[in-house]
Amino acid sequence: MPVSNSASTASVAERLPITYGSLAQAVADPLGAIRQQYESHGPISAWEDGGQRVVFVFGPEYNQRVLTDTETFHSWFFPVRGPRGSAQRNLTSGLLNQNGAHHREQRRIVMEPFQRRSFAAYGPRIVEMTEAMLHDWEPGQVRDLHAEMNRLLLRVTSSLLFGFDCPDLAFELGETIERWGEMNHHMGLAAIIPHTSQSFDYDKLLTYAEHVEGKIKQMIQVRRANPHGDDVLSILLRSQASGSGLSDEELIGQTNLLFAAAHLTTAHSLTWTFFLLAQHPAEGDKLTQELMELETSGEFEAFHLEKLAYTDRLLKESLRILPGSAYVQRLCVRPAQLGPFTLSRGTVVLFSQYMTHHMRELYDEPERFSPDRWLTIRPSPFAYLPFGAGPHNCLGGPLATMLMKLVVPLVWRRFRMRVVPHSEINANAVATMLAPLTPVRMQLLRAQEALVRAEVTGNIHRYVDLSASTLEGASNLAT
Ligand code: HEM
To answer: What is the mean pLDDT of residues 160-164?
Structure first.
C-alpha cells in the first residue's frame, strides 16, 4: 500500500511531495498510479521505492521544461538497450533513443518521407484498404472493433511504410514487433525503470530481439532489391544509397520504431473514437450530419479533408480524453532543479498526456466527451499534446491525422455502431499506449438506424464519464 508524504509522518524538512511504495505495484496499474500522484500532490511529485525515485510532472509548465530542455532531459523510450552490437541494441536505436545533434541529423533524414507532399499519395491506398475491410461487414453483425482496427492498421502501415501489400506478412511482422514491445514493457517496468539484471526474462528478450531483427533485415533486403516505390522504407533506402549517412544498424532501429510507433497508437485511437461515438448518440448524429452534407454537395468522394470541421473536433476530443500515447519518460542526464526536487543524474522523469488532458485547471469537466469544446478552446502545445511536443514530437502526427480523417468518415457513412450491452471495457497503458485490454464488441447498424447508448462495465468509467446525466440521447439506453 503506497504512503503519501502528505499523510505520513515525514518531518517538515522532508515534506516533499513523495509517495513511498513499490514501483512494481505502480507498474501494475500505471494510469491509476499517475492519477493518484496528481490527486495527492498536484503538478509535480515523486514516487520512491528504496533508492529508486521517479518524478512525475503534469501540466504545461513542467511539460514544457522537460520536453524542451533537451540538454538535461534525454529521450530513452526503450530503457533496456542490450549489449553493444546486439539485436536488442539495434532495435532500440531509433529516434526515440537518440538525442542532441545525432537525433537532429537522423530526424532530418527520417522526416523526408513524412513531408505532406510525400504522403498525400497515400490517401487512395488508405481508402482502398478501408473499403476492403468494410466489404465483409454486414448490418447486424457483432465485431470486435479493436481487432478490426488492429488488422486494418497492420495492413495500412505495412503498405505505407514498407510497400508490403501482403496481409499475412504484415500480420506476422506486426505480431512479432508487438510481442517484442510487450516484452520491453515488462522488462523495463512499463518503460519506467531499466531492469537489466541477467534474468531469464532478459535473456529471452535478447533472443527474441534477434528474431525480430532477422525479420526486419529480410524485409529491408526485399525492398533493397526494388527500392522504387513511394513507401517510407524505399525512400529511406534511396536516400541511404545517395549518401544520407544512415547506417544499416540505424536503418534497422528507425524501421522498427516506425512500425512500432505507427500501428498500435493509431489502431487504439480509432477504436476509442468509434467507442466514444457509439456511446454518445448526439455526437454520432453530428458526424452523420456532416457526412451527409458533404455527400449531397458531391464533395465526399473528393476527400476535402479540410471541410470535415466536426470530424476534426471529434478526433481532437477523442485524442484528448483517451490519448493513444498515455505517458512517456525522460532521463535526467545532469544534476538539475525541477520544482522542489534536486535531481541527480539518472533520475527518470515521467510526463503524461493522459493526466494533463484530464486536469480540471485546463479542461472544463475533463471526463466529459465533448467535441464542441474545441469551438472555443485553444490549449497551448504543452497543455494538449497527443503527439508530444518539442524536438521529439511525433513525426507521423500529420499522417496519423489524415489516416483517421479518412477512416472514420468512410466507416461511419456506411455503418453506425452500438456497443454490445453489458460489455466489460477495460483500458490501461500498455507499453505507454492507452490500449483497450478487452475486446470492444460492437453491433453494426445501418447508416440510418438510431444510435443507442449501451450500459457497459469495466474501468473505462475512470477515464470517461458515461453516466446518463451527462449524455444527450440517454433515453435510448440499450439494456
Ligand atoms: C494516433 C497515432 C499516434 C500517436 C498518438 C502518436 C504519439 C506520439 C508521441 C506522443 C510521440 C512523442 C514521444 C516522446 O516525446 O517521447 C511520438 C513520437 C514519434 N512517433 Fe508517433 N504517434 C502516432 C502515430 C504515429 C505514426 C503513424 C508514425 C509513423 C508513421 C509515428 C512515428 C513516430 C516517431 C518516429 C516518433 C519519434 C520522433 C522523434 O523521436 O523524433 N507516430 N508519437
So the answer is: 84
- Which of the listed residues 157, 316, 321, 394 should we mutate to test ligand 1's pocket, taking the one with most ligand atoms within 8 A of CB? 394
* CA angle at 32 for the pair 30 and 37, rounded to the nearest 5°: 95
Nearest to 54 by CA among 6, 92, 18, 78: 18
Residue 310 clears pLDDT 90, i.e. is over it? yes
* Alpha helices by DSSP H, 6-99: 23-28, 30-41, 60-68, 87-91
Residue with cell 530481439: 209
For residue 137 the three cell numbers come to: 461487414
Predicted TM-score (pTM) above 0.90: yes
Q: What is the average pLDDT across 237-243?
A: 89
Going by CA atoms, what residue is nearest to atom 35 of ligand 1? 258
Which of 377-383's residues contact partners 24+ apart within 8 Å by CB, and which partners? 379/60, 380/60, 382/60, 382/61, 382/63, 382/64, 382/67, 382/356, 383/59, 383/60, 383/63, 383/356
CA angle 270, 271, 275 (to 5 degrees): 115
Confidence class for position 7, pLDDT limits 50, 70, 90: very low
- The CATH number of the structural domain formed by 58-478 is 1.10.630.10
Q: Higher confidence at residue 291 or residue 196?
A: 291
- How much distance in Å is there from the Cα of 387 to the middle of ligand 1? 6
Spans of all domains in the chain: 58-478
Instruction: Indicate whether 63 pLDDT > 90.
Output: yes
